[in-house]
Amino acid sequence: MKIVVMGASGHGQVVADILFQMWAKGREMELVGFLDDDQKLTGTRIMGLPVLGRFADLAATPHDCVILGIGDNADRARVHAELTQARKRFATAIHPSAILAPDVIVGAGSALAAGAIANPGARIGDNVILNTGASIDHHCVLGAHSHVAPGAHLAGRVTVGEGAFIGVGACAVQCVQIGAWSVVGAGAAVTQDVPERVTVGGVPAKPL
Ligand SMILES: CC(C)(COP(=O)(O)OP(=O)(O)OC[C@H]1O[C@@H](n2cnc3c(N)ncnc32)[C@H](O)[C@@H]1OP(=O)(O)O)[C@@H](O)C(=O)NCCC(=O)NCCS
Predict the structure, then answer these.
(1) Is 205 a domain residue?
(2) Residue 32 placed within a domain
(3) Are residues 80 and 118 in the same domain?
């Protein structure tokens, strides 16, 4: 299976590394390289992989599927919609050190980084990032295009809406709902539901 990583910046490199670690553990795949809209990168190599062109060059790049190496949730959702429209298939990247209960569902195109943990009953939507050392406990639901940043921890039955972002080191108590496209600041402790499209921070988290 030939995989192209769309986006060669920091998160794209994390995604490429996850795929490389999967390959090193025996998963059959061919990492074709990156595409990135920063034209200066075309023709360079990053992590030993070629940057083959811009996103628009995907059609000319041999591939069976793609995965998005884009950290920003809105950008990742937009590119995901375009590629879905173009009927592209999405690879899913799960680092070999991630720990998932057997019944956890992981959506297409999602990336689970080193040390990520998802406990029983958790559902991870499409195009989600569960980042380094982040944990979601039993029956959490992560909406499509959401991102749980490094070291963030969600207690059981927390719902994260589509496109929502949980900042590095933040946490949420059990059963809270975090609205679509909201942002939870770094280090926050969410103790109550968060409406859609707001930014909260602090301990306990309040609108910023
Ligand atoms: C919450 C956040 C999105 C706000 O960013 P912003 O809109 O640029 O806000 P600013 O930096 O201008 O700060 C606005 C105010 O909020 C406060 N603030 C910012 N981040 C905060 C946080 N995490 N917790 C509490 N207060 C915070 C600032 O001190 C400032 O307060 P002031 O007006 O009294 O001076 C950002 O600070 C943050 O925490 N991002 C998470 C980054 C992250 O986790 N990255 C991981 C990538 S993998």
Answers:
(1) no
(2) yes
(3) no
Number of domains observed in the structure of the chain? 2
Half-sphere exposure at residue 114, Cβ-oriented, CA atoms within 13 angstroms: 8
The sign one gets for the Cα dihedral 158, 180, 126, 70 is: negative
Chain segment 4-18, per-residue pLDDT in tens: 999 999 999 999 999
Based on the domain organization, do 189 and 152 belong to the same domain?
yes
CA of 121 to the centre of ligand 1 (A): 32
| Pocket residues: Cβ below 6 A from ligand 1 | 131, 149-150, 167-168, 183, 185-188, 199, 201-202, 208
pLDDT category at 76 given cuts 50, 70, 90 is: very high
How much is the mean pLDDT over the chain?
98
Give the count of beta carbons closer than 10 Å to the beta carbon of residue 60. Answer: 8
